[in-house]
Amino acid sequence: MVVGLVETAVPTAKSTISSVVKKPTFLSSDPIINVARGDPTIYEPYWKKMGDRCKVVIAGDEFMSYFCNTMNLCWFLLPELDNAIRTLHRVVGNAMVDDDRFIIVGNGSTQLFHALLYALSSPDLPEPINVVAAAPFYSSYPEETKFLRSKLYKWAGDANCYDKDEPYIEVVTSPNNPDGSIRGTVVNREGGKAIHDLAYYWPQYAPITSKADHDAMLFTFSKATGHAGTRIGWAIVKDKVIAAKIVKFIEVSSIGVSREAQLRAAKILGVIADDCRNLDLKGENFFEYGRRLMSERWGKLRELGMKSNGLFSLPKYPRDYCKFTGEYTDSNPAFAWLKSNEVLNCENLLRDESKIITRGGPSFGVDSTYTRVSMLSRDVEFELLLERLAAIKGTVNGN
């Protein structure tokens, strides 16, 4: 069976791209295109044109000690990175970073997620604490929670179905991965704790409506700027006891975080903040560039959908006022959450009919009519994705 793609999402500003599908210069003959991953290579052209502005030079005698600042609770956090993180959040307005908040750096937000599960658990409980997230939830949460077979915590599934009168930790991702929705806690019971994963709460993906002010918040360098290979994430935590337990987890598991990686992250975050504050900047700052690029990609996908035969649909996203941009903007999530309106296995369908590899709904706690498609690949790969989706539509229409 061959199917097409329809668009049912809320309209956005008209794309600046003149055609729906632009033929890629290569890859058309490749047997498989993998858009199951969230590898953010979309931003490579921007950082390439920045040239030496983001260059970091490190002498051979630098960063030889384990320690950055023994006076800081997070003793392996570079002061330059601490300052850059707080400055950028203040410029963007997406999180509270007052001086009474603790910043803890990790080897990506994945390590910090494990650290927070450890910090929010208690060895005094008779049973492991339940960890839940509302479906569709990030597909790695169940695996990461189960991986160490910890006696402190266990995966307990969909928060929408959680009815136990027991302690729990709820993981809230907002904007959500995979469907881009804005979320809050679901369970809201006494004895509950929450981890707020805000990896995609940046202006290129969603309107910044307020400063997030939760007890424990996670951010990641990879989705904020695209530098996934640097492996830097950070937690913003209110409670000193919880922050100290997170630091202890990272101390035991990796004896801190690479200072070279931290310095690179500090440099790049600083450049972004400086450009956002520079009213005389010639050209776009990073978030303007990212928002335009994501909007153009979503415009192409929506335009393609309007020309298809209605067998697929996308979520609708309401416009909202963005305090960073000072205008009403659309959400342009990092992933397209496709649903088969014909109750077909969406992941299998795209793989078998067009050799497009995606990540299916069951990985996210929902049925197989859904699948997740990354919007963050390189231009040539994204154009190939559109080319193949258009070919499916064309076959349906007899073209």
Automatic annotation (TrEMBL):
InterPro entries: Alliinase_C, Alliinase_N_sf, Ethylene_sulfur-biosynth, PyrdxlP-dep_Trfase, PyrdxlP-dep_Trfase_major, PyrdxlP-dep_Trfase_small. One of its GO terms (biological process) is amino acid metabolic process. GO terms for molecular function: carbon-sulfur lyase activity; transaminase activity. Its cofactor is pyridoxal 5'-phosphate. Residues 33-392 form the Alliinase C-terminal domain. The keyword Transferase applies. Signal peptide: none annotated. Pfam families: Alliinase_C (PF04864). Gene3D superfamilies: Aspartate Aminotransferase, domain 1 (3.90.1150.10), EGF-like, alliinase (2.10.25.30), Type I PLP-dependent aspartate aminotransferase-like (Major domain) (3.40.640.10). Keywords: Aminotransferase, Pyridoxal phosphate, Transferase. Belongs to the alliinase family. This is Alliinase C-terminal domain-containing protein. The lineage of its organism: Eukaryota, Viridiplantae, Streptophyta, Embryophyta, Tracheophyta.
